[in-house]
Amino acid sequence: MPELPEVETVLRGLKRTINGQPLCQLDSLYNGTVIYDPEIVQPLFPAHVTEFCRRGKYIILHLERGNALVIHLRMTGKLIYTENENEDAKHIRALLTFTGCARIIFNDIRTFGKIIVTPESRIDAYLPELGPEPLDRSFSYKCLQKGFAGKKAPVKNALLDQSVVAGLGNIYVCEILYRAGISPETSVADLSVSQLKDIVNHIRQVLTEAIAMNGTSVSDFRQIDDKTGQFQNFLQVYQKEKCPQGHEIKRIKQAGRSSFYCPVCQK
Ligand SMILES: [Zn+2]
């Protein structure tokens, strides 16, 4: 599933690819993929994209006249640029056409992805409760203290909670906890301030490195040009058998997700 670095990679790819062309058409090819808010400001098209934003794992494209597209890739959604008219149509759920005939295909095998067309004023109605952005300057251990307050959940599960911190998913949380030397089973109630600071530092580092590598492609994720990311080559525990120190990696289930960790390096 795309996490913050993959969504950020797609967003940057969109900006580069759209390159100032106005969006002139949005076709829905699968029932339920494109959702229209009844209060859209008409006419919707043609419209330039005035701002390219990301919030957690959501892409938000602001359009002229005060509308916006909120795009959630969910499990398998991909946005792929094409100039080819005869693109394999099997998993295409929506099509964004730009003046000059450049097209961006919304390909989604599992069909959980969504494109919501809404007035900017109603964007929040389509987003879940989202915690702070981990790459914002203001993100600090105090945000985690606040998000973890009164909870006893294992730190792995708590970091996956989008209302605590936005954008993290299973792969990056495993990597972050390895680098911080903290077992995924540690209760958030038992974390010291210095451990919280470590977690914050490693969140920033891992996400920044992964964005620089255009994300992680362990399954479906592709960049806008259909190429894979490269951060999968730098994972230290996720789907690994040995940690970089040569210890055996343990795999456990937490809240239905696989956690990979090193019982020697992570306490
Ligand atoms: Zn180890």
Per-chain topology:
Elements: H1 4-18, E1 23-28, E2 34-36, E3 49-55, E4 58-63, E5 67-72, E6 77-82, E7 92-98, E8 103-108, E9 114-119, H2 141-148, H3 155-160, H4 170-180, H5 193-212, E10 250-254, E11 257-261
Parallel strand pairs: 2-9
Antiparallel strand pairs: 1-7, 3-4, 4-5, 5-9, 6-8, 7-8, 10-11
The protein binds zinc ion.
Residues 243, 245, 247, 262, 264-265 line the site of zinc ion.
Brief rundown of the structure:
With 267 residues, this protein is of the alpha+beta class. Helix content is 22%, strand content 24%.
Task: Give an overview in words.
The chain has 267 residues and is of the alpha+beta class. It folds into two domains: 4-126, MutM-like, N-terminal (N-terminal domain of MutM-like DNA repair proteins, Alpha-Beta Barrel), CATH 3.20.190; 141-261, Helicase, Ruva Protein, domain 3 (Orthogonal Bundle). Helix content is 22%, strand content 24%. The protein is built from five helices and eleven strands. The chain has helices spanning 4-18, 141-148, 155-160, 170-180, 193-212, and strands at 23-28, 34-36, 49-55, 58-63, 67-72, 77-82, 92-98, 103-108, 114-119, 250-254, 257-261. The strands form three sheets. The protein has a five-stranded mixed β-sheet with strand order 2-9-5-4-3, with helices on one face. It has a four-stranded antiparallel β-sheet with strand order 1-7-8-6, with helices on one face. Strand 4 and strand 5 (67-72) form a beta hairpin. Helix 1 (4-18) runs parallel beside helix 5 and helix 4 crosses helix 5 (193-212). The mean pLDDT is 95. The structure holds zinc ion (ZN). Zinc ion binds next to loops.
